[in-house]
Amino acid sequence: DQQVKQNSPSLSVQEGRISILNCDYTNSMFDYFLWYKKYPAEGPTFLISISSIKDKNEDGRFTVFLNKSAKHLSLHIVPSQPGDSAVYFCAALLENTDKLIFGTGTRLQVFP
Amino acid sequence: DSGVTQTPKHLITATGQRVTLRCSPRSGDLSVYWYQQSLDQGLQFLIQYYNGEERAKGNILERFSAQQFPDLHSELNLSSLELGDSALYFCASSVSMSPGELFFGEGSRLTVL
Prior knowledge:
The complex is a heterodimer. Chain A contains no helices and eleven strands. Chain A is mostly beta strands. In chain A, the strands form two sheets. In chain A, strands 2, 4, 5, 9, 10 and 11 form a six-stranded mixed β-sheet that branches. Chain A has a five-stranded antiparallel β-sheet with strand order 1-3-8-7-6, with no helix packed on it. Chain B is mainly beta.
């Protein structure tokens, strides 16, 4: 039972353009959503988060949008840079717990 | 460098064997989490400890067990190993002030032959 889904295993974007990574969830009991980035041979690192009471959070080139009615969130990276090439994991935190559920990841490649 | 240390980085063993993976959390972090990442899979939550006590449990097999010691380091024990247990095992820690913000180690890659 995959409660957090990333349906696109990979995405290729040209440098300078926008990267949009998508994530869907099924459980209404999530109260925080996060994005993590993972480079090869490293552990995931926290990128950006959003509370379920908000619909947008921005941090520099990274913006996360949350659509609660659709149970959908997305990560926008503008402009995309080659250093952004990595696997991006969407994650959701179960309400009143520390249990963080991850999606399967989307591999982003930013080419020159 | 996240400050979370995992050993060993790589481990190759045979089916039926038992291994122990070790994790030292960031200084001051009381929570330790274990995750498993199999090929083409996301990070599967296994178990969480907080200050020595089990706090949350995920899809952890009965053949697996974990504990957190008084110095806050944690060990994940995997026994009666099967081929399907081959995976990357990540440890993460947090101070629980930023919801969901975990600091991950580099992982222990287990290969079961």
